Amino acid sequence: MAELLELGKKLLSERPHKIEKSPKRIRILLGDEYIVDTTQAVYVWEHPYYPQYYIPRKAVKSGWKLTTEHPDGFCLCQASTGVATGWPKTVDNVLQFQRGPLEDLVRFPFDAMSAWFEEDEQIYVHPKDPYKRIDIRRSSRHIKVEVNGVVVAETRQPTLLFETMLRTRYYLPATCVDFTVLTPSETVTSCPYKGNALYYNGVVKGKEIKDAVWRYKFPTQESAPIAGLLCFYNEKVDIWVDGAKESEETDERN
């Protein structure tokens, strides 16, 4: 809660990094009810990395009550409506602005809602940045992965994933990876572009590298080409590309 209050103060005093209208129809599902259905949602970049959707107050479904006044120009409030058995009918940590660049906009906590939809497709984790994208390409480049000087994967059939402003990721067929040095990790992460990733720890020469490898068993539709492939964390292992050692600097030059 304290972090959200600080966020509200910062957005009023320093303004968001960027604000932009979204052309998409946005719907927010809570339990069995769509509490928002609008084509007037706004992208708000609270930080440089990705946006959140802010909703015009008038687009919140009739019957949902929101605090309407606050001397600071914003409030951290609860959206609520009548009780319906079996479904949640309150949402805490809703930011609502009464003045400034975000006047009359409402920020619902993404994870607290049952589902968010852009047009008729559900989105996950957070909205995608309209200025960032991923490209996935099959390749014949020679990829070799070493951990503590031991080769743990090698292939000439990698799949390369290019994501705006990030390092190239090399996805490898499972048959090209030495599974004797991998143990399952409990870590699971989610990405709005790729889906849910499962991780493996690497153990070579008695040294364990936590979450050194990940794979998407059931990626999103746009990332379907990496389904079942394994990707080693560039920053935790040594990767050789066509005989040259890959690094953040060489990746940027390429």
Task: Characterise the protein shown here.
With 254 residues, this protein is mainly beta. Helix content is 7%, strand content 44%. It contains 2 helices and 21 strands. The chain has helices at residues 2-14, 248-253; strands spanning 18-21, 26-30, 33-38, 42-45, 52-56, 74-80, 90-97, 105-107, 115-118, 121-123, 134-138, 143-147, 150-155, 159-163, 169-172, 182-191, 195-204, 207-215, 230-232, 238-241, 244-245. Strands 11-14-15-19-18-17-16 form a 7-stranded antiparallel sheet, with no helix packed on it. The protein has a 6-stranded antiparallel sheet with strand order 1-4-5-8-7-6. Strands 3-2-9-10 form a 4-stranded antiparallel sheet, with no helix packed on it.
Structural classification: mainly beta
Globally, the shape reads elongated
Amount of beta strand: 35-45%
Order of helices and strands: HEEEEEEEEEEEEEEEEEEEEEH
Total number of beta strands: 21
How many helices? 2
Keyword list:
about 250 residues; mainly beta; 7-stranded antiparallel sheet; 2 helices; 21 strands; about 5% helix
Walk me through the topology.
Blueprint: H1 2-14, E1 18-21, E2 26-30, E3 33-38, E4 42-45, E5 52-56, E6 74-80, E7 90-97, E8 105-107, E9 115-118, E10 121-123, E11 134-138, E12 143-147, E13 150-155, E14 159-163, E15 169-172, E16 182-191, E17 195-204, E18 207-215, E19 230-232, E20 238-241, E21 244-245, H2 248-253
Antiparallel strand pairs: 1-4, 2-3, 2-9, 4-5, 5-8, 6-7, 7-8, 9-10, 11-14, 12-13, 12-20, 14-15, 15-19, 16-17, 17-18, 18-19, 20-21
